Amino acid sequence: MSDLKIEGWENRGARKEKAWPSDDALKQAVMAELDLDPYVVTADITVRASLGSITLDGTVGSYYQMLIAGQDASNVVGVGWVVNNLLVRGASRSDWLIEDDIAFDFDTDYALDGFQLRSKVNNGVVTLTGEVHNGFEKYHAGDVAAGVLGVRQVINRIAVVQSAGLKSDQVLAGDVTNGLRWNWTTWPVRKDIKVSVSNGVATLKGAVDSWSERREAGRVAFRTAGIWAVDNQLTVTSYGTDYPWDQWFDKSIPGQGDPTYYPGHMWKYYEHPYLWDNS
């Protein structure tokens, strides 16, 4: 055990600014992250890096692998943006078999039991419809469908019907703030995130250091009991560059600009795991 102690005021010339990796180092770090993920087969994946931007090219065996690979890349420190160009080469299956598997998974899933959800499949492209009580259930259903063999794309049109008996907005804002305080990913930036709630919709404002912190803040808010939607307006400061949410938030994409969805995942567009499939 070491008894050495470093006082905060004693910098003695220590580096204060963040040191960002070179493009080559960032590329190697992303490849290492993908190699360590048991859910991703990297044999046919290539990675390009340019000033903090990562581009994934090649093919993977399933739609789920494509999503996971994009998330893995975004989790690497120093990555400012991910362009996911991966194509799905998965085994071809009959649409009715895919529908049957999705229906079975919905019926046996802990979070979706009791909901009347429907899937329509056309050449591996899945369209989901039905009603759930909150956004987590909606996008969890999308994740479940994405994991079925043969799925090439998911279009999530499940409607969220707000349930009654919500806490007051002030109490909900406090609950979200407490969640950010106790989450290990958001703890370092908890004081930089301002939370407000209106009619059960949480709005997050401020600045964070990474896409992982931004995404996790959205998830913390989204999983707070009584919150049914999240408007994530957090700005990311990464690789020496600011990424203001209102500049890279593409309002030309159908559905974007509407705060009543969960901005949790980051694939081709960072705000929504399935919207870009419709564009």
Provide a descriptive summary of the structure in words.
With 279 residues, the protein is an alpha/beta fold. The protein has three domains: 23-88, Histidine-containing Protein, Chain: A (2-Layer Sandwich); 95-160, Histidine-containing Protein, Chain: A (2-Layer Sandwich), CATH 3.30.1340; 169-274, Histidine-containing Protein, Chain: A (2-Layer Sandwich). The protein is built from seven helices and 14 strands. It has helices at residues 23-36, 63-75, 95-108, 135-146, 169-182, 211-222, 245-248; strands at 45-50, 53-60, 81-84, 87-88, 118-122, 125-129, 131-132, 153-156, 159-160, 193-198, 201-208, 229-232, 235-238, 241-243. The strands form four sheets. Strands 10, 11, 12, 13 and 14 form a five-stranded mixed beta sheet that branches. Strands 1, 2, 3 and 4 form a four-stranded mixed beta sheet that branches. Helix 6 (211-222) links the parallel strand 11 (201-208) and strand 12. The longest helix has 14 residues, at 23-36. It is flat and about 60 Å long. Residues 248-279 have low confidence and may be disordered.
